[in-house]
Amino acid sequence: MQGIEELASQVDRKIFVDGSEITRKSLVSFILEKHRRKLKESAEERKRLAGEVERIRGEVEEEKKRRDELNRKVQELKRERQRLKEENRQLRGEFFRLIEAERKNEPPRKEVKLYRKYIEDLEWKLQTEAITLETEKRILKEMREAYAKLKELTHPEKIEEINQRIAEITKRIGENMARIEELHTEMAGYVEESNVHHQRYVEGVKRLRELESRMKWLEHVSKREEEAIQFWSEMGERMSE
Fold first, then answer.
1. In CATH, what number is assigned to the domain containing residue 123?
2. pLDDT, tens digit (0-9, with 9 covering 90-100), for 11-70
């Protein structure tokens, strides 16, 4: 209130504007008008900001909702991908057991051993290492080719029943791998879109904080202006007595 007190002390002095003396009552009226104008401007800005806050808050909520929906889809796709990987792991075990059963009276051929070890290494890498989608896609392709080569190597010696089951397993593994690749593509798209909505959400929250801080400051300004108006109104009333 120091500024108000300084101005108040001037009402007992002669006040000149452009060389002309003005009355104390005119000075008080001038000061009151100034504070009322500031109070009005503050109220108008707060009203405008309140509308902007409401609009941005709605946008932020919508961005968060969309981001969370996309993240849920990503998690669903991850679960499906993991299920397919686990199914392929089990099919792979059956695949090799069938080969061993068919060849139980013969020592395993070197090529079969090599491809089996190669596939196992690729499967282990998929299950345990953090790799990029592009690398995983390449590994899946190599595994399909390895399974096809194994089938080609063992085909002449399979009995009909084992041959049919191995063909079914090979087909199913191939279908699963193709679906896994599709899931990669879908997930990448959802993740990219989710990141866009998340960035908009973050920017919106930041803007909301800025606006709310500004409104809080304006509320403080309005309170000061109201106090000043009350002070000078009382001062004017005393002058009129």
1. 1.10.287
2. 445 555 555 556 777 888 888 899 999 999 999 999 999 999 999 999 999 999 999 999
Q: Quick one: tokens of 106?
A: 């013969």
Kindly report the number of other CB atoms within 10 A of residue 156's CB atom.
7
Tokens 């199914």 locate to 87
Rounded (10°) CA dihedral 187, 190, 196, 197: -130
Residue with tokens 């009355």: 23
Residue 4 lies in a domain: no
**Cβ neighbours for 34, distance < 8 A, ≥ 6 positions apart:** none
Are the beta carbons of 217 and 23 closer than 8 angstroms?
A: no
pTM higher than the cut 0.70: no
CB 60 within 8 A of CB 205: yes
Please, which residues have CB within 8 angstroms of residue 38's CB and are 6 or more apart in sequence? 221, 225
Residue 94 belongs to domain spanning: 9-240
CA distance 81 to 51: 45
Residues in the chain: 241
Single out the residue of 55, 180, 60 nearest to residue 126, CA to CA.
180
Q: Pick from 106, 114, 117: which is nearest to 158 by CA?
A: 106
